[in-house]
Amino acid sequence: MSLFRDDGIVLRTQKLGEADRIITLLTRGHGRVRAVARGVRRTKSKFGARLEPFSHVDVQFYARGSELIGRGLPLCTQSETIAAYGSGIVTDYARYTAGTAMLETAERFTDHEGEPAVQQYLLLVGGLRTLARGEHEPHLVLDAFLLRSLAVNGYAPSFDGCARCGMPGPNRFFSVASGGVTCGDCRVAGSVVPSSEAIALLSALLTGDWETADACEARHAREGSGLVTAYLHWHLERGLRSLRYVEK
Q1: Closest Cα partner for 140 from 200, 222, 59?
Q2: Of 47, 59, 80, 157, which residue has the fewest beta carbons closer than 10 angstroms?
Q3: Is the distance from CB of 34 to CB of 97 less than 8 angstroms?
Q4: How far apart are CA 236 and CA 29, in angstroms?
Q5: Total-model pTM
Q6: 174-198 tens-digit pLDDT
């Protein structure tokens, strides 16, 4: 029997039996972990209140053997709140739907349990912190998170040089299959011609230029979101259920 301690973000919970839950977390040191939290559905359980989606927690796990990820689910025996991001997210519909899409994205990009994904973890912590504080429009925070999640997982789109031949930009055409913008010679069937403002917005979100992103017009933000969604779905090979509820 072994004890493991890690900090992580609660991605989702599932009912188990009459009073227990299965908690799915994205942790700093062990990647995605599923664990059983006993008795957390009881009304007076303070332990359960700490293990809600969006919570950033320090958790102790109890597992059989020398590895956290084994044949059975480990037990979540202790948790301490690091940051309760949910309090600033769940009371606002736009923040809540954006945050839910962020949690689902993080889980989809960490589909192998026990494999560290530190960049994805840090990206999620930063994204939820920004969302909870209301520093930027929720849909912009979400699109920035989606683009950066794609980048840290090896799918960074190009918004300047041609994604196929490297021809310096600006380039007019955008193709999800090609990996971003392309020149006229590399244009493929199904390419679209987005506005230069939408491309500039996506580039700003990817690089963290919030001054440019916050100044964008709503119509260009909607156009950019459509490109991000299409690009994400292409690489995940199936859509995110939570994206349909996000306000644009």
Answers
A1: 222
A2: 80
A3: no
A4: 24
A5: 0.93
A6: 999 999 999 999 999 989 999 999 9
What's the CA gap between 203 and 197, in Å, rounded? 10
Distances (CA, A) of 236 to 7, 154, 159, 232: 26, 12, 20, 6
Q: What is the mean pLDDT of the chain?
A: 92
Cβ atoms of 160 and 181 within 8 Å: the answer is yes
| Pair 39, 55: CB distance under 8 Å | no
pLDDT in tens, 117-140: 999 999 999 999 999 999 999 999
Are 19 and 111 a contacting pair, CB within 8 Å?
no
Q: Running DSSP on this structure, what letter comes out for residue 68?
A: S
Cα distances from 67 to residues 1, 61, 79, in angstroms, run 9, 11, 19
Helices (H), the chain: 46-50, 93-108, 118-133, 138-152, 196-207, 210-214, 218-236
Domains of the chain: 2-87 (2.40.50.140), 136-245 (no CATH)
Whose structure tokens read 């679209």?
192
55-63 and 173-175 beta bridge pairing: unpaired
∠ Cα 187 188 189 (to 5°): 130
CA–CA dist 91, 144 (Å, integer)? 22
Q: Give the residue among 55, 79, 24 at the shortest CA–CA distance from 128.
A: 55
Give CA–CA dist 179/175, Å, rounded. 6
Residue type, 63: A
Q: Provide the Cα torsion 146, 147, 149, 155; round to 10°.
A: 130
Q: Is the peptide bond before 170 cis (omega within 30 degrees of 0)?
A: yes
